[in-house]
Amino acid sequence: MTQIISPDTDPDTHAGSTATQADVSAEIAAISRAYAEGGTIETQPRLDYPPYRSSVLRHPTKDLHHADPEGIELWAPVFGHQDVDPLEADLTIQHRGEPVGERMVVTGRVLDGDGRPVRHQLVEIWQANAGGRYIHKRDQHPAAIDPNFTGVGRCLTDADGTYALTTIKPGPYPWKNHRNAWRPAHIHFSLFGTDFTQRMITQMYFPGDPLFALDPIYQAITDQAARDRLVATYDHDVTTPEWSTGYRWDIVLTGSQRTPMEEDGSDA
Ligand SMILES: [Fe+2]
Fold this sequence. Notes:
Helix content is 14%, strand content 20%. By secondary structure, the chain is an alpha+beta fold. The protein starts with 20 loop residues before the first helix and ends in a 16-residue tail after the last strand.
């Protein structure tokens, strides 16, 4: 399988902070109160969100240079159906055996701001295994590597803008943002928008995760309605008998209902 994206951005490796979860939760609460009192709606993640420690180091302090989109597109790859094998949409069949965990299907539509389907869009995902472990070396926490699960897959949307991926439900995992910091279970998504200057990265979460309130990355989106757009819905019509559970998650690329996207990809 040709791998376009690197899971190396996952998870975070910056030095562990001595701050406790209570410290970070208090910071999250203070920002949340100030946001509620501010009266301005923000639907995208804050670039500089102090509870998410490394965001302070990462966010740009100078104006971005504007690239010439047409110049970039002269050199950008073009994907066709022949480049993406339909089998790459199933992350549970990449090895000799079955991966451990809850087999599930994630499906949904990629839409533009007017609700029109975005067709033949490349959708890529990467994720931890059922134990919350990524396969790459930077993740060294003591949870089992699953030899039957790499955690990377991709597909193209169809003529209706629909994507569908079969995978294993990822587990939550610890990271070193602060002491006892744990990420809610999530799947990273990458899309290219309508041209190759618009690569977009975001994370899909699962309904009712108890770690939402504690997570500085999820909370860096200060608006609850915008945060909710990152949470999939359990859909029993996507669930199949004796085989897999099912979740539905639509992605809106532009407009007021736009799915929150990360500026340059989260490092967790
Ligand atoms: Fe992650």
